[in-house]
């Protein structure tokens, strides 16, 4: 099979590596824009593939998920090893961080056991040099017995050499005689006995020696497969043997560490003790419990300032000169058409999808700022600093990354939970993510707070954001203790070194996210916009007698507990489409769409207590439909999606009622 | 190698990374992933989560392996493996 592929000059290459080693940069360099992003079959893990073409060579590049090892502890690890074993790529490129070779070679040690040709991409050589690490790629190549290519992927260095090494290995013209790690001698006999016991019953397509090794390591997935394939009596003998060597995993891992030690001793000279690197100097501040937090708050502030200072005026321009002009043009063009068609296009489509699209400049700047921080190596520090605050929630620092994304939009926050290791922590992150106030909620707050509270608007806004975060923390603690029973896996985080950001990597980061946003606007948001417009139009064509208003009247008793009329409840309900829709709905219900008139009416009909309750509910309410759809997609469960929606509705109304009734009790603002 | 590390940890009250590396005969860079591996396998567990940065009066202050965020302890499984006395 492999020979056929090579003769037609098509080479399948799998990129493997631990997280934060620059694997994505290598993938981007090789594939450019010829990338396809999807999901691994049956999983919520992103699958990236791409094509490299040059001088008659065609390489199909598959970017495997970042994994520390291949021990089937996580979905990512299972995907990576299953792909290599079942799909048999022609070459596996192991991308390793030259500055953390000891940690990175563990994965290489496991890859070599899979009997697929491996090429080692020794990335971040420039940073290793800055740190005073002296690595001899040729010596490492001789020790490992496979091609080693020194690279600086962030600067595009080493790519031609990598391509050449892949081609030579695929064609069988490279010197390839890998030195594989061996199990410690006192366990060799057990390993051979295991191989004998499973001899003719090895579940395909797994190699026999690898299956025996995994049995010795106590790999649950492989053990289960072997149990199914063996006759009962043979399985019992094998099981007894494994029980007698319960700690054999230490012998297997020790063999790998001894192998790593030999490789590193041969090829790496470490700097003398006492030399402080650039990264260490920066990290003294960036990871300090106090200064690190201050720096993080400062950077967060800067990101928001940049986003609003540059993005908001652009959004205003887009709205004034793009959206409004388009709506006027469409209204004029459709002047002679039926009212329902004009309403559907002008109010439903342009008013719904168009409004959401005006957020594009804000998202563009927000994602660019994030891409920069991620690429420069800072985001891992942010997670590290936040780690201690995440522990009481049963989460670890990595959950901070998606939650932080939630300030922009809850959809990427829920999707971003993919970076969190462990299904339980991932689920908890998804459940609390909608409580992070997104830009759309903040926009509603920014519009309504001055109408209700005048000069005190800034103070009210500042108090409502921490309210959201406090509710997030309390919800996390409660869900963790009561629903998920407080389990939390150990977590080790490798802090990547700081490096000069790569414009191409940041550009691709922004491009992919914007593309996903546009795709969503064209599908889910479009559908829901039409649906809500129809609910407001049907059955009579009058808003006052529409289904939407009927629904609002049903909720009036609940609204009364918060001092809110049915119109305010309809506005809350309509915010399910997109948060900003609440303002549009209020405009239609109170003032026929005139913004200035709306401000006057709202300011006079609501008491301060009711207005505060409304803003608090709006900030905590069920997220928009796109976020709910994403929760369903990421959890793969209607049950958890329903739990999320029901709990957020209950929390928001409980807080709203508490605020209004509390204010009544103390006699404030009623 | 890993059994030796477990025995070294079991022998003392607290170790710093440099001491442990010397005792096991490896570099600190290799010791870190070994510790992480033992934690993954359930022989060690991180304990920093429990103290929440409340270091005042802590007898481990300044002696913890690599600082408070990288403080580990033996689990019952780890203690058993350390006692089993396999040759190293």
List the helices and strands and how they pair.
The complex is a heterodimer of chains A (670) and B (88).
Chain A: H1 2-7, E1 10-17, H2 23-31, E2 35-39, E3 46-54, E4 57-63, H3 75-87, E5 91-97, H4 101-112, E6 118-123, H5 125-130, E7 134-135, H6 137-144, E8 148-150, H7 159-171, H8 188-198, H9 208-217, H10 220-229, H11 232-244, H12 248-267, E9 268-269, H13 278-286, H14 291-333, H15 339-357, H16 360-376, H17 378-390, H18 400-405, H19 410-416, H20 423-432, H21 439-453, H22 457-483, H23 503-537, H24 547-554, H25 556-560, H26 566-574, H27 581-591, H28 595-605, H29 608-620, H30 625-635, H31 638-666
Parallel strand pairs in A: 1-4, 1-5, 5-6, 6-8
Antiparallel strand pairs in A: 2-3, 3-4, 7-9
Helix pairs in contact in A: 4-12, 6-12, 8-9, 8-11, 13-14, 14-15, 14-16, 15-23, 16-23, 19-30, 20-22, 21-22, 21-28, 21-29, 22-29, 24-26, 26-27, 27-28, 29-31, 30-31
Chain B: H1 2-11, H2 17-24, H3 28-40, E1 44-46, H4 48-51, E2 72-74, H5 76-83
Antiparallel strand pairs in B: 1-2
Helix pairs in contact in B: 1-5, 2-3
Description:
- The complex is a heterodimer of chains A (670) and B (88).
- Chain A has 670 residues and is of the alpha/beta class.
- Chain A has helices at 2-7, 23-31, 75-87, 101-112, 125-130, 137-144, 159-171, 188-198, 208-217, 220-229, 232-244, 248-267, 278-286, 291-333, 339-357, 360-376, 378-390, 400-405, 410-416, 423-432, 439-453, 457-483, 503-537, 547-554, 556-560, 566-574, 581-591, 595-605, 608-620, 625-635, 638-666; strands at 10-17, 35-39, 46-54, 57-63, 91-97, 118-123, 134-135, 148-150, 268-269.
- In chain A, the strands form 2 sheets. A 7-stranded mixed sheet of chain A has the order 2-3-4-1-5-6-8, sandwiched between helices. Chain A has a two-stranded antiparallel ribbon with strand order 7-9.
- In chain A, helix 13 (278-286) packs across helix 14 and helix 14 (291-333) runs antiparallel to helix 16.
- The longest helix of chain A has 43 residues, at 291-333.
- Chain B has helices at 2-11, 17-24, 28-40, 48-51, 76-83; strands at 44-46, 72-74.
- A two-stranded antiparallel ribbon of chain B has the order 1-2.
- At the A-B interface, helix 4, helix 12 and helix 17 of A face helix 1 and helix 3 of B.
């Amino acid at each position: 099979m492999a020979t056929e592929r090579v003769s037609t000059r098509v080479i399948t290459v799998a990129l493997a590596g631990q997280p934060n080693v620059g694997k994505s940069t290598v993938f981007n360099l090789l594939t450019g824009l010829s990338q396809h992003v999807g999901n691994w079959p049956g999983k919520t893990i992103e699958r990236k593939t791409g094509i490299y073409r040059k001088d008659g060579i065609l390489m199909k590049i598959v970017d495997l998920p970042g994994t520390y090892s291949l021990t089937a502890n996580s979905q990512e690890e299972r995907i990576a090893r299953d792909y290599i074993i079942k799909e048999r790529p022609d070459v596996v490129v192991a991308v390793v961080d030259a500055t953390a070779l000891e940690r990175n070679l563990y994965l290489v040690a496991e890859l070599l056991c899979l009997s697929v040709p491996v090429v080692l991409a020794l990335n971040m050589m420039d940073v290793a040099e800055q740190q005073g690490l002296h690595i001899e790629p040729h010596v490492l190549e001789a020790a490992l017995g496979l091609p080693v290519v020194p690279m600086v992927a962030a600067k595009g260095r080493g790519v031609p050499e990598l391509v050449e090494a892949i081609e030579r290995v695929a064609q069988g013209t490279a010197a390839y005689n890998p030195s594989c790690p061996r199990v410690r001698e006192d366990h060799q006999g057990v390993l051979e006995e295991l191989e004998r016991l499973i001899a003719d019953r090895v579940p395909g397509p797994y190699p026999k020696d690898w299956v025996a090794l995994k049995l010795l390591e106590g790999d649950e997935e492989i053990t289960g497969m072997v149990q199914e394939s063996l006759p009962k009596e043979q399985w019992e003998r094998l099981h007894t043997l494994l029980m007698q060597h319960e700690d054999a995993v230490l012998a297997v891992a020790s063999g790998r560490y001894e192998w790593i030690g030999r490789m590193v001793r041969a090829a790496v000279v470490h700097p003398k003790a006492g030399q402080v690197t650039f990264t260490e100097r920066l990290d003294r501040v960036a990871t300090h419990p106090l200064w690190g937090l201050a720096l993080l708050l400062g950077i967060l502030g800067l990101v928001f300032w940049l986003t609003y200072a540059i993005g908001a005026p652009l959004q205003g321009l887009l709205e004034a000169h793009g959206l409004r002009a388009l709506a006027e043009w469409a209204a004029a063009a459709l002047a002679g058409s039926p009212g329902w068609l004009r309403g559907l296009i002008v109010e439903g489509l342009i008013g719904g999808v168009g409004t959401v699209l005006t957020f594009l400049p804000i998202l563009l700047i927000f994602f660019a700022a994030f891409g920069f921080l991620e690429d420069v190596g800072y985001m891992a520090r942010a997670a590290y600093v936040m780690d201690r605050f995440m522990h009481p929630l049963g989460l670890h620092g990595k959950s901070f990354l998606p939650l932080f994304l939630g300030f922009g939009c809850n959809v990427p926050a829920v999707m971003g939970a993919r970076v969190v290791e462990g299904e339980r922590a991932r689920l908890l992150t998804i459940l609390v993510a909608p409580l992070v106030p997104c830009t759309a909620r903040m926009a509603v707050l920014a519009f309504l707070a001055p109408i209700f509270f005048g000069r005190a608007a800034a103070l009210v806004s500042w108090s409502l954001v921490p309210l959201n975060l406090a509710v997030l923390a309390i919800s996390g603690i409660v869900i963790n203790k009561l629903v998920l029973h407080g389990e939390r896996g150990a977590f080790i985080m490798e802090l990547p070194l700081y490096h000069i950001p790569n414009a191409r990597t940041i550009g691709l980061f922004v491009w992919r996210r914007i593309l996903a946003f546009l795709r969503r606007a064209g599908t889910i948001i479009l559908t829901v916009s039409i649906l809500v417009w129809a609910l407001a139009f049907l059955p009579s064509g009058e808003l006052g007698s529409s289904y939407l208003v009927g629904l609002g009247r049903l909720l009036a008793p609940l609204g009364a507990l918060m001092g809110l009329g049915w119109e305010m409840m309809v506005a809350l309900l309509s915010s399910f489409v997109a948060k900003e829709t609440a303002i549009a709905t209020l405009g239609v219900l109170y003032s026929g769409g005139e913004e200035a008139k709306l401000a006057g009416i709202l300011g006079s009909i609501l008491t301060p207590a009711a207005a505060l309750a409304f803003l608090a509910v709006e900030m905590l309410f069920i997220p928009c439909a796109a976020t709910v759809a994403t929760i369903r997609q990421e959890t793969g469960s209607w049950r958890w999606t329903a739990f999320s929606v029901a709990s957020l509705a209950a929390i928001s109304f409980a807080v709203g009622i508490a605020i209004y009734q509390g204010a009544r009790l103390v006699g404030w603002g009623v | 190698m890993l059994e030796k590390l477990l025995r070294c940890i079991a022998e003392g009250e607290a170790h710093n990374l440099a001491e442990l590396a010397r005792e096991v005969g490896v570099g600190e860079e290799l010791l870190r992933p070994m510790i992480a591996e033992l934690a993954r396998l359930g022989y060690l567990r991180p304990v920093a989560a429990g103290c929440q940065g409340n270091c005042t009066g802590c007898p481990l202050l300044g002696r913890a392996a690599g600082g408070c965020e990288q403080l580990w302890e033996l689990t019952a499984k780890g203690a058993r493996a350390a006692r089993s006395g396999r040759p190293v």
